[in-house]
């Protein structure tokens, strides 16, 4: 099976490789900001935004690789009806964490598989996370230790790292939280006969 990951996400690549899949990485050249803004202007739901961004990436790369399965992914943080983007500064990371402190939010991780320019499978995994009411002192120490690494994650945290200490409760699949509904993807690939069942 030729599997192409239309993303430069190191954690997604690592999850797929750890599951025993061989893959090639080809970043999709998609203007995510413009697409996200257009979808928000149309009042699309966070779920639809995640799915549309994942599909745009898969579609873009699929056209260049006939016969290959191309995986597009995207993750959206949904909070109070809006969505968060990756923080582009330390101040933006602080603002996100202050907004989320003591409250619940959702992470939606979308995955879309394309084959020969057409979608053949899609899934949006949802996890619900509740942050604890951490102190300002802890917040500043956390930012000092983890910036700029957390700038690559919506919500300014990585659950697989110190970000786990920010949470009081996590409901949902761990892989979905990391950015890929891996179990559902592997089940589909097994049904297709692409991986051993």
Q: What's this model, at a glance?
A:
The protein has helices at 10-18, 32-41, 46-62, 90-100, 136-146, 174-178, 182-192; strands at residues 3-5, 24-25, 69-79, 82-84, 104-115, 118-131, 167-171. By secondary structure, the protein is an alpha/beta fold.
Top keywords for this entry?
197 residues, alpha/beta, Maf protein, 7 strands, globular
The CATH architecture category equals Alpha-Beta Complex
Percentage of β-strand residues: 25-35%
What is the typical, i.e. mean, pLDDT?
96
Low-confidence stretches: none
Number of strands: 7
Structural class: alpha/beta
Q: In this structure, how is the largest beta sheet organized?
A: 7 strands, mixed
Give the topology string: H per helix, E per strand: EHEHHEEHEEHEHH
- First-to-last CA distance: 14 Å
Q: Level of helix content?
A: 25-40%
Gyration radius (Cα, Å) is 17 Å
How does the overall form come out from the CA principal axes? globular
CATH topology type: Maf protein
Number of structural units classed as domains = 1
The number of helical elements comes to 7
């Amino acid at each position: 099976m030729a599997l192409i990951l239309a993303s430069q996400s190191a954690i997604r690549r690592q999850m797929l490789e750890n599951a025993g899949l061989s893959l090639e990485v080809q970043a999709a050249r998609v203007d995510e900001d413009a697409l996200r803004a257009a979808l928000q202007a149309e009042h699309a739901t966070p779920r639809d935004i995640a799915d549309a961004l994942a599909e745009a990436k898969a579609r873009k790369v699929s056209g260049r690789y006939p016969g290959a399965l191309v995986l597009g992914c995207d993750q959206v943080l949904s909070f109070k009806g809006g969505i968060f983007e990756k923080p582009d500064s330390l101040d933006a990371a602080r603002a996100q964490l202050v907004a989320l402190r003591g409250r619940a939010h959702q992470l939606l991780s979308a995955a879309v598989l394309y084959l020969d320019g057409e979608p053949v499978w899609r899934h949006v995994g949802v996890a619900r996370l509740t942050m604890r009411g951490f102190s300002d002192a802890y917040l500043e120490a956390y930012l000092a230790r983890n910036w700029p690494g957390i700038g690559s994650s919506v919500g300014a945290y990585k659950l697989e790292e110190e970000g786990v200490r920010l949470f009081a409760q996590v409901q949902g699949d761990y892989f979905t939280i990391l950015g890929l509904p891996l179990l559902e993807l592997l089940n589909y690939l097994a049904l297709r006969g692409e991986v051993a069942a």
